[in-house]
């Protein structure tokens, strides 16, 4: 685990002070306090919230949500690991000094109005204060931090993510909220979730080592608009990508995007080609789209990369077969050539009209039994290194039973399986598979892209001569 006690205090605090907590409903300080105490705004059961010590700080209130309130953090007699600061910007500097005098290890500055608005001097003053007290700072201008594994929700969001194995870092607080809504809808879980804001002090690279050493984390995903110290990031990434996959969506690829990034967080984007080359050299997967970031991170955090590069595609719909074959060609995913033995086995369970080749079209009247039998044949075939089962609704097959069939087959193999339930009409079956650790996506194209990422991950590890992949992916199926 990282030896940086400040970073550890961000994700594993024993005590937290909310400076700017308020009894006034709908204020950000009230929402954060509510989430700390109950884990989710509107919840009433305190057993679901943070179980460490909680110290609300407010200049006038005697108590907030049943807890004693303090006029200053200096009035708290206990040690305080983390302070969440949600006061007007003109008070942040004085509050930070008080945190430093108190011995706070880490502070999360929710307050905006610093570098992103051109006030660079004030942001630099924050860094000086942090350094003088040996205190780490997240923000300013951020949403906050989640650690679902200890029921810690230090944000002002309405929803909280589920437990899982993906650590997510975002420079945008608003996109954090979108990520949570998307993930809760489809069944993706997180080990940690952090909105990093302006990155005045703690940046992406500071967090890589912590997450790489965290046994609950199987993949690190990042949304990045700027990298003030790109060299530091890539040097750190090179140290860990052989044991911990990293997926990055680096925006600002175009002149329009770079200009938007500058106005959003006060950052200046450099030439994108240099980033592209550095990502490849470091073994970092670069997503080009928002959903690709989560699709690939989900695949990395639940599936072992294949030992080879040849993939089988299985579907009950001819149109999906054609679409997936085109996308496989587009992204360079190699399709396995089925052996005569494999074809003979599929002949025994499919009508004569099945495709007789890969992609494997088992015909629209396929039920869950046929789906399971053919999928088992494919994962057992020595010429196949991974399988993409792509289910089309509206057939004889019952979605819940197809989902169970896919899961049952997955327990018999270490080969990667990446699914699509096209259209996501049957959301419960779709979500259940994701909860079971089988990445399931709403389109054939997205499933193919995620599988290609796993193939490329396997090639990278073989190039780096990494052995015993199962040990490196402890916790995967």
Automatic annotation (TrEMBL):
Keywords tagged on the record: ATP-binding, Ligase, Nucleotide-binding
Keyword Hydrolase: no
CoA-binding domain location: 10-114
Gene Ontology molecular functions: ATP binding; ligase activity
Pfam families the record matches: CoA_binding_2 (PF13380), Succ_CoA_lig (PF13607)
Source superkingdom: Archaea
PANTHER family associated with the record: 3-HYDROXYPROPIONATE--COA LIGASE [ADP-FORMING], ACETATE--COA LIGASE [ADP-FORMING]
Protein name per the record: CoA-binding protein
Organism: Candidatus Heimdallarchaeum endolithica
Lineage of the organism: Archaea, Promethearchaeati, Candidatus Heimdallarchaeota, Candidatus Heimdallarchaeia (ex Rinke et al. 2021) (nom. nud.), Candidatus Heimdallarchaeales
């Amino acid at each position: 685990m990282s030896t940086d006690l400040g970073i550890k205090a961000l994700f594993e605090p024993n005590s937290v002070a909310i400076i700017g907590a308020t009894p006034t409903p709908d204020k950000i300080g009230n929402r954060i306090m509510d989430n700390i105490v109950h884990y989710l705004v509107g919840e009433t059961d305190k057993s679901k919230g943070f179980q460490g010590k909680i110290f609300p700080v407010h200049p006038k209130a005697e108590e907030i949500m049943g807890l004693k309130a303090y006029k200053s953090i200096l009035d708290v007699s206990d040690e305080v690991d983390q302070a969440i600061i949600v006061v007007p910007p003109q008070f942040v500097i004085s509050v930070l000094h008080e945190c430093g005098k108190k011995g706070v290890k880490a502070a999360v500055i929710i307050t905006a109005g610093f570098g992103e608005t051109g006030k660079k001097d004030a942001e630099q003053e924050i860094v000086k204060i942090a350094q003088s007290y040996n205190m780490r700072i997240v923000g300013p201008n951020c949403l906050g931090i989640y650690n679902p594994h200890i029921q810690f929700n230090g944000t002002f969001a309405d929803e909280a993510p589920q437990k899982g194995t993906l650590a997510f870092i975002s420079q945008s607080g608003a996109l954090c909220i979108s990520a949570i809504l998307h993930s809760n809808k489809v069944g993706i879980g997180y080990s940690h979730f952090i909105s990093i804001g302006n990155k005045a002090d703690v940046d992406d690279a500071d967090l890589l080592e912590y997450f790489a050493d965290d046994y609950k984390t199987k993949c690190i995903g990042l949304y990045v608009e700027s990298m003030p110290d790109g060299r530091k990031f890539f040097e750190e990434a090179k140290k860990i990508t052989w044991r911990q996959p990293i997926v990055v969506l680096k925006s600002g690829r175009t002149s329009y995007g770079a200009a938007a990034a500058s106005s959003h967080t006060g950052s200046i984007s450099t030439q994108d080609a240099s980033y592209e080359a550095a990502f490849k050299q470091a073994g970092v997967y670069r997503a080009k789209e928002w959903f690709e970031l989560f699709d690939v991170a989900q695949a990395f955090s639940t599936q072992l990369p294949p030992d080879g590069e040849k993939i089988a595609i299985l579907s009950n719909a001819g149109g999906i077969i054609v679409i997936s074959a085109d996308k496989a060609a587009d992204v360079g995913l190699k399709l396995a050539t089925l052996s005569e033995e494999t074809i003979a086995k599929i002949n025994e369970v499919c009508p004569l009209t099945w495709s007789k080749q890969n992609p494997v079209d088992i015909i629209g009247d396929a039920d869950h039994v046929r789906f399971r039998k053919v999928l088992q044949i494919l994962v057992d075939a020595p010429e196949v290194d991974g399988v993409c089962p792509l289910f089309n609704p509206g057939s004889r097959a019952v979605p819940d039973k197809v989902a169970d069939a896919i899961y049952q087959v997955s327990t018999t193999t270490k080969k990667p399986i990446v699914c699509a339930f096209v259209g996501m009409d049957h959301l419960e079956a779709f979500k259940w598979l994701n909860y079971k650790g089988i990445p399931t996506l709403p389109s054939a194209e997205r499933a193919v892209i995620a599988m290609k990422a796993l193939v490329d991950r396997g090639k990278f590890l073989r190039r780096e001569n990494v052995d015993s992949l199962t040990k490196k992916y402890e916790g995967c199926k």
